[in-house]
C-alpha cells in the first residue's frame, strides 16, 4: 500500500501524482519505471515511468494519461488514497554521458514526462541540451517549465499551431541534425513518433535512443510479453530496456503487439463508460 | 493376499465435458471409505522402497498405516515431520517417477500406475486437516535475535521460512509479485491446485510470525548484498525460481498471438483474466491454438486455452507420448478434455497475416532415432515432410531458464553457464552468509525438490547462526 501525497491535473486527461515509496525514491535513476496495481482484487499491472523523486521525503512522481481502464481508475484516486501495490525501480537506467556536442531530447505528448528526468540528468552531467517538445495542441502540452529549467534551448511544436511551431517534432529534429551535428538524440513519445524520429536521424548517423512502452505484466523478465525485435535479436523491454537503439528497433512489429488486446480493451472501456453514466464524466 | 484383492481406488473427478468450461479443481479427492481402502492396498514392506523414491523421505508406510486405521490426525503428523506442503505435493508431485516408481505393489503388478496411490492418500489427509480446522501453528522457539531474509515466496522459500522461524529466527520473505506462492499461484492453474490451499499455507507462516513483504524485487528495490550490509540480516536464502521463459528461436515468434506459457498462465491465474466480467487484465481469445512442448507447463497451457474458450487445442511435441515429461495424470486429463496431440511433430516457422497476427504454423514430421544422453530416443526430422496447420495463437511451453536479475546485479554471485546459482553441499553460494536453492539452483525442477532444498538450506543456515 502506497499513499498518494499530492495530485495535480496537468491537462484534460493527464495527471501528476506524488506517491510514498521511500526505497524506490532512494534507488531509482533516470529512465527507470515502476509497475503498479490500483486495486489488487481484479486490478491490472501497469507500467509508468518514474518522472521524478524526492529522496528526503521518500516519494516518487508519476505522470500519466488516462487512456483506458486502469489509468482512468488511477486518475480517480485522490490525495490521501492508497495504491494497492507498487514495484520498482524497474528497467535499466539511461546511459548518461558528457559529450562535446549537443544532446537533443525529443518528447511527444505524454512522452515528455519520462523525458524530463533524462533532460535533467544530461544537463547535470554538463551537456548542452536542446529539447524539442510537442503535443496536438497548446492545452495538451505538459511540463514546459520543467523542461526549460534544464535545457539550453527549447523548441515547441503543436499539430494545430496553437502554440510554438505548427510542425511535427521531426521537422526541427531534421534541421538540428543538418546544422548542429548532435552527439545523441533521445526520443520518447508515441511509437509512431519514435519510429519517425529514428528514420529522421538515420541518414545523419546520429546515435538515437528511444524508450519503448510495450505491454508488460511482471516487469521482471518472467513472462516475455514485453519482447521486441531489436536488430536480429529478441529483447525483453522490462529488463533489457526500456531504452534501445532506435535505428535497430522493429517499430512496426512493436506497434502491432501493442494492439494485441485493442478490441477487448475498447469493449471494457465502453462497459465502464456505461457504468458511470450519470456520475462524473 | 487379501490386500492384493482390494481394487485400486480411482480418483473421482469432474466430468470432462463440464470441467473444460470451468476453472474448478478437476480431481475431487477420495472419500473416507476410498482412502481407507487404498491405504489397505499398502503391504507395509519392511524395507519400504517407496521412501527412497520420495525426495524428502516421508515415512510412507507409517502415514498410510494410520490412514488405513482412520487416524488421520496421526497420519498428517507423520507426513509433516518431513514435508510442510503435503496438500500441494499430494496434488502435483510426479508420483509415478518418485514414490510410486519404487513401490512393491506396482512392481508386482508390472505397472507403476497400479502402485499404491501414495499422493492421493497424502492429499486426503492434508485436506482432512485443513477442512477440519486442525492445522496447528507450530510452536516457535524463543527468539535467537538473528535475522534471515528469504528471496522469493515459492515452495522453496516458504519451506525454508517455516523451518527457520520454528528455530526462533526473525524471518522476512521478499516477493517480487503482489501475491505469494511463486509458480504455485502464477503458473499452476486453479483447476489443478486451488489458490486457497497455498493461501492457507502462507497464513500459517504469518501466524508463526514470518514477515512477508510483497512488491519487493531484490536486486532492484534493494541490492542483494545490501540486505546483509545495510539492513542487518545475518543470512539470506535465495529461492528466486527459474522464471525466464524459453522460446524456440524460430521465425515469427514475435508475431501477435504468440505467448510464452508463463505469460498466458500468469494472465489467467495470477491476474484472473479468465474472469472476463471482473478482471481488468485481458487474455487473447483464439479459436485454434497450438502449444509447443510436452511437460506439465504445456499441459497447463493447453487445458487453460480450452477453458478460455478455444475450440481446438493442439499439443505439438517432437517425440512420442512415452517420452513426454508431463505427469501421466495431466496427459490423461488433457485427452479427456479434448486436447489434440500431434506427436513426432515440430514447428519450424510461425506464419503471420498482413497485420502481423499469427495465422498458422509450418511443421516438420519427425521419427525416433537412437537414444541420446538422457536415454530418450532422439527425434530426427523427416526431410521434406513440411506441412501447415492453420491457427490463430501459439504458446511455446518449453519450460524456464534461470532469471538473471539477481546474478546481473550481484557480480560476486557465482552462476554456471545456464545461469543457475552454484552452491555447495550445504546450499551455500559463493558469497558468505548467502544460500540458494530450488529452481534457481536445480533449473526448472519440481515442487517437492524445491521444498526439499529449502529445508536443507534452512538446516545449514540454522547451523551457521547457532555457531
Ligand atoms: C516502461 C513503460 C513506461 C511507461 N510510462 C508511462 C508514463 O509515464 N505515463 C503514461 O501515461 N503511460 C506510460 N506508459 C504506458 C502505460 O503503461 C499505458 O498507457 C497503460 O498501461 C494503459 O492501461 P489502461 O488500462 O489505462 O488502458 P487500456 O485501454 O487497457 O490500454 C491502452 C493501450 O495501452 C497499452 N497497454 C495496455 N495494457 C498495458 C500494460 N499492462 N503495459 C503496458 N502497456 C499497456 C496497449 O497498447 C493498449 O492498447 C508506459 C509504458 C511502459 C511499458
Ligand atoms: C506451469 C508450471 C507447471 C508446473 N507443474 C508442476 C507439477 O505439476 N509438479 C511439480 O512438482 N512441479 C511443477 N512445476 C515446477 C514447480 O512449480 C517448480 O519447480 C517450483 O515452483 C520451484 O519452486 P521455487 O520456490 O524454487 O521457485 P518459484 O516457485 O519459481 O518461486 C520463486 C518466487 O520468487 C520470486 N522472485 C524471483 N526473483 C525475485 C527477486 N529478485 N526478488 C524477490 N522475489 C523474487 C518470484 O516472483 C516467485 O514468486 C511447474 C512449473 C510451471 C511453470
Ligand atoms: S511428497 Fe511427493 S514423492 Fe513424497 S510421498 Fe508425497 S507425493 Fe510421493
Ligand atoms: S513400497 Fe508400496 S506397498 Fe510397500 S510400503 Fe511403500 S507404499 Fe506400501
Ligand atoms: S513484462 Fe514480463 S518479461 Fe517483461
Ligand atoms: Mg488495461
From TrEMBL, chain A:
It comes from the Bacteria. FAD binds at residues 63-65. Keywords: 2Fe-2S, FAD, Flavoprotein, Iron, Iron-sulfur, Metal-binding, Oxidoreductase. PANTHER family: DIHYDROOROTATE DEHYDROGENASE B (NAD(+)), ELECTRON TRANSFER SUBUNIT, DIHYDROOROTATE DEHYDROGENASE B (NAD(+)), ELECTRON TRANSFER SUBUNIT-RELATED. One of its GO terms (biological process) is pyrimidine nucleotide biosynthetic process. Binds 1 FAD per subunit. Its cofactor is FAD; [2Fe-2S] cluster. [2Fe-2S] cluster binds at residues 223, 226, 238. Residues 1-96 form the FAD-binding FR-type domain. Its EC number is 1.18.1.2. It is an enzyme of class 1 (oxidoreductase). PROSITE patterns: FAD_FR. One of its GO terms (molecular function) is flavin adenine dinucleotide binding. This is Ferredoxin--NADP+ reductase. InterPro entries: Cyt_c3_hydrogenase_gsu, Dihydroorotate_DH_Fe-S-bd, FAD-bd_FR_type, FNR_nucleotide-bd, OxRdtase_FAD/NAD-bd, PyrK_electron_transfer, Riboflavin_synthase-like_b-brl.
Amino acid at each position: 500500500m502506497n499513499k498518494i501525497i499530492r495530485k495535480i491535473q496537468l491537462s484534460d486527461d493527464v495527471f501528476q501524482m506524488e506517491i510514498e515509496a521511500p526505497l524506490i525514491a532512494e534507488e531509482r535513476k533516470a529512465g527507470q519505471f515502476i509497475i503498479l496495481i490500483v486495486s489488487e482484487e481484479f486490478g491490472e499491472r501497469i507500467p509508468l515511468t518514474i518522472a521524478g523523486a524526492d529522496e528526503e521525503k521518500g516519494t516518487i512522481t508519476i505522470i500519466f494519461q488516462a487512456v483506458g481502464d486502469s489509468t482512468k481508475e488511477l486518475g480517480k484516486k485522490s490525495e490521501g488514497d492508497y495504491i494497492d501495490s507498487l514495484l520498482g525501480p524497474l528497467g535499466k537506467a539511461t546511459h548518461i554521458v558528457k559529450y562535446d556536442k549537443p544532446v537533443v531530447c525529443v518528447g511527444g505528448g505524454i512522452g515528455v514526462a519520462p523525458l524530463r528526468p533524462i533532460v535533467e540528468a544530461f544537463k547535470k552531467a554538463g551537456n548542452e541540451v536542446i529539447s524539442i517538445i510537442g503535443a496536438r495542441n497548446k492545452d495538451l502540452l505538459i511540463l514546459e517549465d520543467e523542461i526549460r529549467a534544464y535545457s539550453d534551448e527549447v523548441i515547441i511544436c503543436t499539430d494545430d499551431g496553437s502554440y510554438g511551431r505548427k510542425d511535427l517534432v521531426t521537422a526541427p529534429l531534421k534541421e538540428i541534425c543538418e546544422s548542429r551535428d548532435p552527439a545523441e538524440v533521445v526520443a520518447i513519445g508515441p511509437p509512431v513518433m519514435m519510429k519517425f524520429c529514428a528514420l529522421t536521424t538515420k541518414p545523419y548517423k546520429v546515435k538515437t535512443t528511444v524508450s519503448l512502452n510495450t505491454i508488460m505484466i511482471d516487469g521482471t523478465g518472467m513472462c516475455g510479453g514485453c519482447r521486441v525485435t531489436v536488430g536480429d535479436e529478441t529483447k525483453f523491454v522490462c529488463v533489457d530496456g526500456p531504452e534501445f537503439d532506435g535505428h535497430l528497433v522493429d517499430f512496426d512489429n512493436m506497434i502491432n503487439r501493442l494492439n494485441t488486446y485493442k478490441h477487448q480493451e475498447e469493449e471494457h472501456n465502453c462497459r465502464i463508460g456505461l457504468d458511470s453514466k450519470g456520475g462524473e464524466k | 493376499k487379501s490386500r492384493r484383492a482390494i481394487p485400486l481406488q480411482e480418483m473421482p473427478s469432474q466430468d470432462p465435458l463440464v470441467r473444460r468450461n470451468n476453472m474448478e479443481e478437476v480431481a475431487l479427492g477420495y472419500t473416507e471409505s476410498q482412502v481407507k481402502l487404498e491405504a489397505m492396498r499398502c503391504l507395509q514392506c519392511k524395507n519400504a522402497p517407496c521412501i527412497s523414491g520420495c525426495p524428502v523421505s516421508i515415512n510412507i508406510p507409517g502415514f498410510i498405516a494410520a490412514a488405513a486405521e482412520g487416524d488421520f490426525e496421526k497420519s498428517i503428523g507423520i507426513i509433516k515431520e518431513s514435508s510442510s506442503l503435503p496438500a500441494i505435493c499430494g496434488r502435483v508431485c510426479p508420483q509415478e517417477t518418485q514414490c510410486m516408481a519404487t513401490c512393491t505393489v506396482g512392481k508386482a503388478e508390472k505397472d507403476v500406475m497400479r502402485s499404491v496411490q501414495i499422493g492421493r492418500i497424502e492429499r486426503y489427509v492434508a485436506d482432512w486437516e485443513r477442512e477440519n480446522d486442525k492445522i496447528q501453528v507450530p510452536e516457535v522457539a524463543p527468539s535467537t535475535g538473528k535475522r534471515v531474509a528469504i528471496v522469493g515466496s515459492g515452495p522453496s522459500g516458504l519451506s525454508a521460512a517455516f523451518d527457520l522461524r520454528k528455530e526462533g529466527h526473525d524471518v522476512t520473505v521478499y516477493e517480487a509479485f503482489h501475491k505469494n506462492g511463486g509458480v504455485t499461484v502464477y503458473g499452476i492453474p486453479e483447476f489443478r491446485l486451488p489458490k486457497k490451499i497455498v493461501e492457507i499455507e502462507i497464513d500459517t507462516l504469518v501466524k508463526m510470525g514470518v514477515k512477508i513483504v510483497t512488491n519487493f524485487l531484490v536486486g532492484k528495490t534493494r541490492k542483494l548484498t545490501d540486505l546483509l550490509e545495510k539492513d542487518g540480516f545475518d543470512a539470506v536464502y535465495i529461492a528466486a525460481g527459474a522464471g525466464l521463459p524459453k522460446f524456440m528461436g524460430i521465425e515469427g515468434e514475435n508475431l501477435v498471438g504468440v505467448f510464452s506459457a508463463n505469460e498466458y498462465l500468469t494472465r489467467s491465474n495470477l491476474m484472473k483474466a479468465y474472469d472476463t466480467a471482473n478482471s481488468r487484465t485481458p487474455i487473447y481469445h483464439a479459436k485454434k491454438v497450438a502449444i509447443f512442448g510436452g511437460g506439465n507447463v504445456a499441459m497447463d497451457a493447453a487445458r487453460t486455452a480450452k477453458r478460455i474458450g478455444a475450440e481446438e487445442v493442439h499439443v505439438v511435441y517432437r517425440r512420442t507420448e512415452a517420452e513426454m515429461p508431463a505427469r501421466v495424470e495431466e496427459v490423461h486429463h488433457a485427452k479427456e478434455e479434448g486436447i489434440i496431440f500431434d506427436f513426432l511433430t515440430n514447428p519450424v516457422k510461425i506464419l503471420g497475416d498482413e497485420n502481423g497476427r499469427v495465422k498458422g504454423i509450418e511443421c516438420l514430421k519427425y521419427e525416433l532415432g537412437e537414444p541420446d544422453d538422457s536415454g530418450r530416443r532422439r527425434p530426427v526430422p523427416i526431410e521434406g515432410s513440411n506441412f501447415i496447420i492453420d491457427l490463430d495463437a501459439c504458446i511455446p511451453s518449453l519450460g524456464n531458464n534461470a532469471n538473471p536479475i539477481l546474478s546481473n546485479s550481484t557480480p560476486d554471485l557465482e552462476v554456471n553457464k545456464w545461469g543457475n546459482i552454484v552452491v555447495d553441499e550445504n546450499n551455500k553460494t559463493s558469497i558468505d552468509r548467502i544460500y540458494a536453492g530450488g529452481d534457481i539452483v536445480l533449473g526448472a525442477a519440481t515442487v517437492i525438490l524445491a521444498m526439499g532444498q529449502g529445508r536443507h538450506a534452512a538446516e545449514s543456515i540454522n547451523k551457521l547462526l547457532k555457531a
